[in-house]
# Entry
Amino acid sequence: MPKNNNLKSILIIGSGPIVIGQACEFDYSGTQALRSLREDGIETILINSNPATIMTDPTMADHVYLLPLTTKSLVKILKEHPQIDAVLPTMGGQTALNLCIEADEKGIWKDFGVELIGVDIDAINITEDREKFRELMLKIGVGMAPQATATSFLKGKEIAQEFGFPLVIRASYTLGGAGASIVHKAEDFDELLSRGLEISPIHEVMIDKALIGWKEYELELLRDKNDNVVIICAIENMDPMGIHTGDSITVAPAMTLSDVTYQKMRDMAIHMMRSIGDFAGGCNVQFAVSPDDNEDIIAIEINPRVSRSSALASKATGYPIAKIASKLAIGYHLDELQNQITKSTSALFEPTLDYVIVKIPRWNFDKFEGSDRTLGLQMKSVGEVMGIGRSFQEALHKATQSLEIKRNGLGADGKGYKNYDTIIEKLTNASWDRVFVIYDAIQMGIPLSRIHEITKIDMWFLKQFEEMDALEKEIGKYNIDTLSRDLLLEAKQKGFADRQIAHMLDCLESQVTMKRDELKINRVYKLVDTCAAEFVAQTPYFYSTFENDMQLASGERYADNESKVTEKKKVVVLGSGPNRIGQGIEFDYCCVHGVLAAAECGYETIMINCNPETVSTDFDIADKLYFEPVFWEHIYDIIRHENPVGVIVQLGGQTALKLAEKLDRYGIKIIGTSYKALDLAEDRGSFSRLLKANDIPYPEFDVAETAEEALAVADKLDFPILVRPSYVLGGQGMKIVINKDELEETVVDLLRKIPNNKLLLDHYLDGAIEAEADAICDGENVYIIGIMEHIEPCGIHSGDSNATLPPFNLGDLVLQQIKDHTHKIALALNTVGLINIQFAIKDDMVYIIEANPRASRTVPFIAKAYGEPYVNYATKVMLGEKKVTDFNFNPKLEGYAIKQPVFSFNKFHNVNKKLGPEMKSTGESILFIDSLKDDEFYEIYARRKMYLSR
# Structure
């Protein structure tokens, strides 16, 4: 049956601002769904309050509503668009499903005659209400852990008494495991039970007997109206039960599961999906398997929507789950749809992997002072990375190299733990760095049996770590001249980076790279093709690996490289790596627009990124996608292979920017603002001297590289003093100090964390107003795209401030100074592309805080508020295709737009919620108001000093 022709107009609900537990994977799924529906000529209406997403771009849907995700907003949209036939709520995570249920309970869908597609209300209710889900599973013969529901404190106590400890408490209708915990001891139970009941919107918890040490698996399913079901991907959690899947290291395909058990699990998943409701769409099912020979299977939960893992599974297999799920929701059958990668097989064909993927979460505990850093049932990570390799070891190394936590991969960097007690404690209480600690434990000689006993991680995985350690020890016996080709090739096949091998051999990274070149140990690129090369893939989606080359009859040595280089002029866009506080989805937005703009200018576009949650790593955004770490060695090899005209670094946040120095040193052209100018702006001291030379006001400052120098500077400056390191992201390490003791402690701590850094000490302008401006410059002309005034006072990081566009309280004199300073600085830095400048205003004098000649966090917000494609324009300026004067700027905004930060403090108990110069927000939403008399503006303004801390 082809599509349902009665569906002509569909409402899609987005997931709102990024919070821990719900990140940019739903921007990816929502964007895919919108593109998929528009292919079929369906009118799309989108509601989502997050301005940093590609999904909310005016080009993505026919009508985009940047409104709060409330039933009031839904009613407004449905009144304005009476033609809406259906709502698709499965692309916006738990937020969208919860809003869909609320609208259903209020009778809104019924009142407006709107059909629900992609899922049905009963399915959502059954899967969210843990008691109903349990009853259904028992009825259909699917095993569950012993569990019972409590809707009161007393009932919870009774269940605990019956089951005994350890227990698991899970709150109903929550996101990212909020309110969930493992209780090992009776004395902790009361507090954790109360917390779960409080967090659940229906004040209900499910209490399970804890399956500690059982193995955990996830399956991603799709079903059509004809009841065809395909299993897209089986994902194994390396971490056993007890750690939220969003915080677990996951591997595909499943590595330690017998085929008999896998087939049983498939049958159970299909049976479960069919039993929860009669709908066409996507589903994610989680299972626990006993770690013995019986391999008993128990169902954990089922999510009738695209999930966090759907994005991962899509990138792992090349099968676009959200795109196909939205086609199924409008009536198509799987056998009628094409496989998007081969373009010749049907979507009913299940993907097969001839490579391994490893996902590792990215945490930001340093931003949550006083937080509990151990991992458990409540998700705490803010992003993730994925590595693709021909073996688990290669993929694991690539993933660890992608994390950007100053590690070069597993081991071989001198940064491992050496203390036995520390290692045992970190293995016992699962920590964010456990993947590194396992390697440290093996290096120390702790037996695998002991590591397994503590962590319950399957021996197969531990043996993989052991093999890597054995190879590291073997290589350490040689030097760069005596190391054999075979050993070097083996190290590369296991994913070790050149700089790790250099550490083992006690030589320079460049020497290892040269040796590889001499011995012709070169990366080859392979297609992610969904079908293990059984059919020809048409989509240029690549990962790298090292092959044992073959000797041809001619005597020439050959390794098959599936990435064919064209004669076209090419440009590489460096992505922003994993999501984290200070560098989120807004930089992915910028990268995607950069790619599309370069394509419009006739360039072949090449994207390099390692974040599976993003639109930039969708296989049909750039002409070529390299799913690789944004890590020097990988980038350099791709550039040597492709020979691009240049590389765009100013759209990928600090990740891409940090690579500018290396690119410049190796003679690779940086498109747009030069490395010299980028470096000048990043080096706080040099930048302040540039301001002085241009007669631009700035707070009194000096530079220090030691605590002693800092104390000498303090004699010249008045306290309070703002201490700021160079080359950091999201205000990392910034602090306001009020006396010499605090100054010394802060500087010593900073230089320990960020060695050899230049610290800028400047006089903190207490009580100043903060503002910022974004502009596009072509080296001669400057156009200011937006000036924002912060509602919070100076001293709170701009990413944590409510920013108002246009300013609400700055006089003409101040605005003129801002405009003049912006023009002067942009030209003095020889900016080509985007620049963001931050100001402090005191007594009608405008001082400069800092300038960043790159895409900033606020660019997507301004673009959405004014309805202008600023990143597109800036990219064309960077490429030299256009001048600023070639564009007809026409910003449209009635009233004001406010960028509102969103925090995830509720994931961490007893955490310090105070705000200061270091950024802590995980996402943002946009609020439009007609005038400053609006109640919402008054409320924000009244709270502006609530969390200010020094």
